Amino acid sequence: MIGALFKRDLGRFFPFVSAAGGGGAALPVVFFVAVAMLYPFAVGPDANLLARTGGGVVWIAALLAAILPLEKLVAQDIELGTFDQLRLRGVTEEVMMAVRLAAHWLSFGPPLILAAFPSAALLNLDGPTLQLLLLGLLAGTPGLAAIGLIIAALTASLRTGAALSGLLLVPLALPILIFGAGALARQDAASLGFVAAISLLLVAISPFAAGAAIRAAREV
After folding, report:
1. CB-based contact 25:13 (threshold 8 Å)
2. d(Cα 149, Cα 168) in Å, to the nearest integer?
3. Under DSSP, is residue 14 helix (H, G, I), strand (E, B) or coil?
4. How far is it, in rounded angstroms, from Cα 159 to Cα 217?
5. pLDDT tens, 146-196?
6. What is the pTM of this model?
7. How many CB atoms lie within 10 A of CB 206?
8. Which residues contact 139 (CB under 8 A, 6 or more apart)?
9. How many CB atoms lie within 10 A of CB 170?
10. SS3 of 74, please?
11. Rounded to the nearest 5 degrees, what angle is found at the Cα of 18, between the Cα atoms of 12 and 20?
């Protein structure tokens, strides 16, 4: 049951995994690379300026890319009664949300890490900075996925849920963004430990928080 649920959830983002796949994983990556392409046009061709500020721009792009899938992350399954059917089969909301979290992270985390290579070239990031950026994204994107899942579950039953998702995600993700971008600015790998710790905490609590939100939405 868990394996079939994971395959179904992953198929929502990758069409080759399931015949009903939506292919939603491409949009965050395209957005992420587009930001990296457009930023040099905004600040000019100064290579030193791009190198100093490019890492922070990549983190902002990653944060904004994480917002894109939130509208359809949970709301559609609540409307269709998918979670109710799974609950009748003995699958708890916490398990559903843990599986959804894993699928959600796989849909945008690894693709963004791969997309960081061409983005680093566009922003003139050197080797050590790119290494810190990759480690930071590896540590930070699970936390962004966890925050996104919690927010999507909390706002799924609201008419203005899509608008609120972005507004809520940005302030909650600021600690990850600050430490991640700060590690690049100071060339300090120790700051990534804070990113990893925050992400680990968020990943641990997100299935329970999102599961409680799903139960609350069912009673509305």
Report:
1. yes
2. 12
3. coil
4. 12
5. 998 998 888 877 765 556 676 777 788 889 988 988 888 788 788 899 999
6. 0.85
7. 26
8. 180, 192, 195, 196, 199
9. 15
10. coil
11. 65
Are 100 and 14 in contact by the 8 Å Cβ rule? The answer is no
Q: How far apart are CA 118 and CA 125, in angstroms?
A: 10
Amino acid found at 206: S
Q: Cα(183)–Cα(105) distance, rounded to whole angstroms?
A: 22
Residues in the chain: 220
Among left, alpha and beta (phi > 0; psi -120 to 50; other), residue 23 is left
Q: Where do the DSSP E strands lie in the chain?
A: none
pLDDT digits (tens, 9 = 90+) for 61-85: 888 888 777 777 887 788 888 888 8
Contact 205, 101 (CB under 8 A): no
**Direct distance between the N- and C-terminal alpha carbons of the chain, in angstroms, rounded to an integer:** 28
CA distances from 35 to 96, 148, 164, 201 (A): 33, 20, 23, 29
Nearest-angstrom CA–CA distance, 138 and 71: 24
Residues 6 or more apart whose Cβ sits within 8 Å of residue 216:
157
Query: How far are the Cα atoms of 24, 50, 135 from residue 140, in angstroms, in the given order?
Result: 21, 22, 8
Count the Cβ atoms, other than its own, within 10 Å of residue 61. 23
User: How many other C-beta atoms lie within 10 A of the C-beta of residue 163?
Assistant: 12
> How far is residue 127 from each of residues 42, 51, 55, 120, 132, measured CA to CA in Å?
24, 11, 12, 9, 9
